[in-house]
User: Which sequence fits this backbone?
């Protein structure tokens, strides 16, 4: 897992606004296949989830955990994921939407 | 070919207002927080109106208005509710072009689709549920000679509905028509990507509905959708979207112990058996069109047939014809009636599609056609366009497993019937599927074995009101459409009545 500097900057702003954060990678339609950013603990993870990584971002004390459903991870595990941010609008209940931006996953093959 | 004028320009059949507030209690009210957000058209990327930025205070006000209207609306006779829904349908039908052009401008889809599908289907869904509620009956169970169980349908009360952006008006109608027919009142949150067209509809039908029966609160998911899903006085939540938000909505619903219906997407297989190519006839032509259906609505359909499975023995010739068919899809101005594929609904959607085209290439899938962003030029240069794209690969690739929600098809081959079913079911989802064959037995067996809520058989992307729609596996919970949908918006009241004058004998 990684993240771009643009994503890091946005995460610093969201942390200042909402406190500690978490990600859960979504699947399915509409805003699916995108990482959803919530206040830590807002989304209850469980036995059907995999803890992919903890993102350590400069200027944020607490690492940001990234989760994905186990079933989805089976199809994703051969790829390296980078959380980026692009101008955009909608995002389920993800925290960044009112900023006019959207977190986005970029992928490359693990070698 | 006709080119409709842009909304608000001279000669246009419709105009947007410069600003929309929330529609609560039968009137427009400004947002409690005073904020608005800009709404661009994906056709040009240019802002054309601004929309109230709803918060928990607006949602609460809307729920209160809906609660105030619930008792009277729930007591209204089925005949009267049916009359209102039919009047809504008639009003939309008389203004079909205006609503269709408004929808195209907000969403980016071609006007030939909104004119021929989205809006006529919305009209028909209101009529269907107007009829269904009058035909619905309760039950009487004769338990013994003196004891009867009566089963009555009662409305739930206030329901919350969160609408997706791919068919803003039709998806709102899928949820509204059964909910209102069953006697509920509604607080509806449109998607923030397509928040405007529903207000063109409201302007047309507001006088037909008692105040508070339908309330619309706009805003972002985290600011308006979440307080709606969490609201303790909502009796049910209906959501169309993706899996993480679906799970979050279930979590919120568990706090209030209310039911949910969830439609969370799919990765629908479209299976072509070899006998499809036994002749170059009308049926072959129909099957070829079925292959190209992945481009309908720019691929922004939960049931997009985004995996095509072709039997190996016909693969080369069938694919040659299919690629040629797809390359004939006209991409252009969405307000041209000749345009077959328009703009993706938002910039982030465009970026996501491009990121999947990138990972498809990295995984070694072969691009047979398309594979890039398109700049149609002129005023469309600021819009979000992708060429219809066909990848050839295998079912373990991520482009075969994840919903791209764009005009991107992943094609693979299968050897025999068992292989076809195995690949078709190798997915987390189970919303739609397509089966194409001239053999009725094969069609029946495949349709029953594929784990999906709807298996289109020798057709695709048909959405009549009288057929149940919904998902197996991670595609969701519950169904939409069909009269059975009334059950999702009703309580069952059982009166257990004894007509015996005698004691039961226990005490």
Assistant:
């Amino acid at each position: 897992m990684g993240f771009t500097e643009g994503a890091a900057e946005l995460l610093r702003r969201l942390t200042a606004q909402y406190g500690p954060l978490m990600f859960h990678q979504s699947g399915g339609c509409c805003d699916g296949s995108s990482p959803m950013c919530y206040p830590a603990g807002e989304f209850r993870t469980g036995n059907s989830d995999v803890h992919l990584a903890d993102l350590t971002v400069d200027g944020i004390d607490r690492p940001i955990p990234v989760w994905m459903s186990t079933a989805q991870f089976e199809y994703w595990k051969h790829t390296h994921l980078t959380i980026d941010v692009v101008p955009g609008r909608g995002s389920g209940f993800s925290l960044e939407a009112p900023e006019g931006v959207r977190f986005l996953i970029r992928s490359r093959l693990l070698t | 070919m006709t080119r409709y004028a842009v909304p608000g320009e001279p000669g246009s059949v419709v105009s947007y207002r410069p600003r929309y507030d929330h529609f609560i209690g039968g009137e427009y009210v400004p947002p409690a927080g005073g904020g608005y957000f800009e709404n661009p058209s994906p056709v040009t990327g240019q802002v054309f109106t601004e929309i109230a930025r709803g918060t928990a205070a607006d949602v609460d006000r809307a729920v209160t208005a809906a609660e105030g209207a619930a008792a009277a609306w729930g007591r209204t006779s089925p005949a009267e509710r049916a009359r209102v829904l039919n009047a809504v349908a008639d009003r939309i039908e008389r203004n079909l072009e205006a609503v269709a052009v408004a929808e195209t401008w907000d969403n980016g889809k071609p006007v030939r689709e909104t004119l021929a599908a989205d809006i006529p289907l919305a009209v028909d869904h209101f009529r269907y549920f107007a009829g269904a509620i009058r035909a619905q009956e309760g039950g009487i169970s004769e338990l013994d000679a003196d004891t009867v169980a009566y089963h009555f349908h009662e409305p739930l009360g206030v329901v919350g509905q969160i609408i997706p952006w791919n068919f803003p008006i039709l998806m709102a109608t899928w949820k509204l028509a059964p909910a209102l027919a069953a006697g509920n009142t509604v607080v509806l949150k449109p998607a923030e990507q397509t928040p405007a067209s529903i207000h063109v509809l409201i302007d047309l039908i507001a006088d037909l509905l008692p105040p508070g029966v339908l309330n619309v609160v706009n805003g972002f998911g985290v600011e308006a959708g979440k307080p709606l899903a969490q609201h303790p006085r909502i009796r049910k939540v209906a959501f169309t979207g993706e899996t993480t938000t679906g799970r979050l909505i279930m979590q919120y619903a568990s706090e209030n112990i209310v039911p949910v219906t969830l439609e969370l997407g799919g990765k629908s297989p479209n299976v072509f058996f070899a006998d499809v190519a036994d002749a170059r006839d009308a049926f072959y032509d129909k099957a070829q069109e079925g292959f190209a259906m992945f481009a309908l609505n720019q691929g922004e359909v939960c049931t997009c047939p985004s995996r095509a499975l072709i039997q190996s023995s016909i693969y080369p010739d069938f694919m040659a014809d299919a690629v040629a068919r797809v390359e004939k899809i006209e991409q252009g101005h969405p307000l041209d009636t000749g345009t077959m594929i328009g703009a993706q609904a938002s910039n982030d959607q465009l970026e996501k599609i491009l990121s999947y085209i990138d990972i498809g290439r990295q995984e070694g899938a072969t691009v047979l056609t398309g594979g890039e962003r398109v700049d149609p030029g002129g005023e469309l240069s600021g819009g979000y366009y992708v060429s219809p794209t066909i990848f050839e690969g295998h079912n373990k690739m991520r482009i075969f497993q994840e919903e791209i929600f764009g005009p991107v098809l992943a094609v693979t081959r299968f050897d025999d019937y068992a292989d076809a079913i195995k690949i078709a079911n190798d997915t987390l989802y189970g919303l739609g599927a397509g089966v194409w064959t001239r053999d009725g037995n094969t069609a029946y067996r495949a349709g029953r074995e594929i784990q999906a809520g709807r298996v289109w058989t020798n057709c695709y992307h048909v959405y009549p009101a009288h057929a149940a729609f919904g998902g197996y596996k991670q595609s969701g919970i519950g169904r939409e459409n069909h009269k059975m949908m009334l059950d999702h918006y009703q309580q069952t009241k059982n009166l257990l009545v004894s007509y015996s004058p005698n004691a039961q004998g226990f005490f």
User: Anything to note?
Assistant: Chain A touches chain B at residues 24-34, 36, 38, 42-44, 69, 71-72, 75-76, 79, 86-95, 97-98, 102, 104-109 (CB under 8 Å). The CA atoms of residues 51 and 67 of chain A lie 5 Å apart.
